[in-house]
Design a protein that fits this description.
The protein is largely without helices or strands. It contains three helices and eight strands.
Length: 290
């Protein structure tokens, strides 16, 4: 696992063992998530108003159901200022860009605006689970060892696009040279060596692990078997000002990862995400253990 010389939270390269498991070939799609909701009546975190007890001091105008949405260059008003990421009331998995949007035509795109809780609820319904970070990274590498990408060391072998990542200067120029300015239907790019789709790019993926720096709290001299990350309490961001919430590891990068901004479209790459925060570029897939 891991990588040296890119981002500090990936280092050091280290050996771990994982037990046998089966993993979904593709990301959970809008179509699949809709089947889960139809069967259970489940409501995602983004569809519920925030609990004031969890967010002390939250402004009244933000105490509404909603989620974080990336505003693509083509959708920004000319001359408009402000960050490309915006919290939008009414944004959720059914309305990925805000209350006036929908998922018609996006049924085979990965579901987004789902939190760790939402992903785990789907997994339980499906008789599955979320992968640990180690399981996810093992699957992502597709049988390769210490390669930079899920398919080898060249980002674009023979000029072929291998994943849905940002094309151009992020966040103001999206060239979409591979044909997708946002998410793409699951399986639009070549599978890895294990036949798995979209392990890199498209959307980030939730894992079961609480975020910690590699090796934090470990004194073992042996190769760890089935490591499960850090502790829930230890995953809380000490710099958080509004809500001190635990964070999970997300993996794989997304269609918003670009060389000038976020080179996390690699198996070793990882990020910390608060468990209450679904966004327009985070999804998931599930596994089954014997």
């Amino acid at each position: 696992m891991g990588c040296d010389g890119v981002y500090p939270e990936e280092a050091p390269v280290r050996r771990v063992r994982v037990g046998p498991f089966r993993i979904d070939r593709g990301l959970v799609s809008n179509r699949q998530f809709a089947q889960f909701v139809a069967a259970t009546g489940y409501r995602t975190v983004a569809e519920l108003a925030p609990d004031p007890a969890v967010y002390p001091g939250l402004p009244v105008h933000l105490a509404l159901p909603g989620s974080m949405v990336f505003i693509y260059p083509a959708l920004r008003r000319e001359g408009a200022s402000g960050p490309p990421w915006q919290w939008i009331a009414g944004a959720d998995w059914r309305h990925p860009f805000g209350p006036d949007s929908g998922i018609a035509g996006l049924e085979d795109h990965p579901v987004v605006h789902v939190t760790a809780r939402d992903a785990e609820a789907y997994a339980r319904w499906a008789g599955k689970a979320l992968p640990t970070e180690a399981e996810w990274e093992f699957a992502c590498r597709g049988g390769l060892d210490r390669k930079r990408y899920a398919w080898g060391d060249s980002f674009q072998p023979g000029g072929r696009f291998m994943a849905n990542t940002w094309q151009g200067d992020f966040p103001d120029q999206q060239l979409a040279l591979h044909g997708f300015a946002g998410t793409s239907p699951v399986g639009s790019f070549p599978p890895n060596g294990y036949g798995l789709l979209d392990m890199i790019g498209n959307v980030w993926e939730w894992t079961a692990d609480w975020f910690a720096m590699p090796g934090a709290g470990s004194k073992s001299c042996c190769i760890p078997s089935n490591p499960t990350g850090g502790s829930e309490a230890g995953s809380i961001d000490p710099q958080a000002s509004l809500a001190r919430l635990p964070r999970r590891v997300i993996k794989g990068g997304s269609h918003l990862c670009a060389p000038n901004y976020c080179q996390r479209y690699r198996p070793a790459a990882r990020a910390a995400q608060a468990i209450d925060s679904g966004t327009s570029h985070i999804g998931f897939r599930c596994i089954v253990r014997p």
